[in-house]
Amino acid sequence: MRVAIASALRSYTESREHVAASGATVGELLRSLDASFPGIRFRIVDEQERIRVHVRIFVNRELADLKRPVSEGDDVQILCALSGG
User: Fold this and answer.
1) Whole-prediction pTM value?
2) What is the pLDDT of residues 14-65, one digit of tens each?
3) How far is residue 61's CA from residue 44's CA, in Å, rounded to a whole number?
4) DSSP for 22-74, written as a single string
5) Are 21 and 1 within 8 A, CB to CB?
6) Exposure of 32 in the CB half-sphere (CA atoms within 13 A)
């Protein structure tokens, strides 16, 4: 399936805005992404297997967790919040 990648993570995807990945859940999809783009999963998921606080994953415009089922044709977006002051 096609995954939209936040600009903050595109250094892992050779600057590509959209990449292909597979999996039955969001968690599996992130493992697939990491196989193609090593290191990207660690920027999205922490050591406790939770999506990092500054990252949001949407499937078909609905906020998703790692257990959320996905299938071919779903619209998946990985977004990062900006911070600073």
Assistant:
1) 0.92
2) 999 999 999 999 999 999 999 999 999 999 999 999 999 999 999 999 999 9
3) 18
4) --SBHHHHHHHHHHHSTTHHHHHB-TTS-B-TTEEEEETTEE--TT-B--TT-
5) yes
6) 15
